[in-house]
Design a protein that fits this description.
Length: 236
């Protein structure tokens, strides 16, 4: 079994970034959205020296050139598009940054069907190095696990349908699972889904943007235990 990538998102403090690197995080996420309590500036990731860890800029409302400017100023390695950006937006970034540097978010609870979700994955695959699946129908950092509630009745998939879609989808790129990941939920989620990586955020925080050392250590321990169990063919 290949090792799971681990991303910790919502970095706002240097000590949290250093601890995540020490624990073995592969990716650290820096959110650029003024409406978020986890919002930061490009200067923060730019000054962090974290050998072996890739820094990810998380974008919601920026125009393509604005996102590219932040990527350069922040010395960021990957761009996570978490605001429903269009194919044309992705094409601009992919052309300017080179292949494999985009992480695009998808929300199975928004999908009308497995076929619709699969078509969306396939449509964006040429621009993506990785894909990311989150709970809800937009945004992130809300602490809810995928499929944990019924849709609002506006055509979105129900919780159980979203989980079914996610279990059956064929991802054309490596993908990360986000949404309510914590030491308690990680074993169950890894027994139901087979992501290429996990994206931790609110489930390892003492408060929005402030990571909790004990929760982080427990989450990394849970990931290690789940990896070992899967390698041995045992359900976590």
């Amino acid at each position: 079994m290949n090792a799971l990538l681990v991303k910790v998102c919502g970095m706002t403090r240097e000590q949290d970034a250093l601890l995540c690197a020490e624990l073995g995080a592969d990716l650290l996420g820096f959110i650029f959205h003024p409406g978020s309590p986890r919002n930061t500036t490009p200067e923060f990731p730019a000054r962090l020296h974290l050998p072996g860890v890739r820094k990810v800029g998380v974008f919601l409302d920026q125009k393509p050139m604005e996102a590219l400017g932040i990527m350069a100023a922040g010395r960021l390695d990957l761009a996570q598009l978490h605001g429903g950006q269009t194919e044309s937006f992705c094409a601009v970034l992919a052309e300017r940054m080179g292949p494999g540097r985009i992480i695009k978010v998808f929300w199975p609870e928004k999908a009308a069907s497995l076929e619709a979700f699969q078509a969306e994955l396939d449509r964006y695959a040429p621009y993506c190095g990785h894909m990311l699946v989150d709970a809800g129908s937009g945004g992130g950092g809300h602490g809810r696990v995928i499929g944990s509630h019924i849709g609002s009745g506006d055509g979105s998939a129900s919780g159980s349908k979203a989980a079914e879609i996610l279990a059956q989808a064929k991802f054309p790129r490596p993908w990360l699972l986000a949404g309510g990941l914590s030491p308690d939920t990680i074993p169950d989620l890894l027994s139901r889904f087979t992501p290429s990586g996990l994206d931790l955020n609110s489930g390892v925080e003492a408060a929005p943007g402030l990571k909790d050392e004990q929760l982080l250590r427990a989450a990394f321990a849970a990931i290690k235990a789940a990896r070992a169990a899967q390698t041995q063919g045992v359900t976590p």
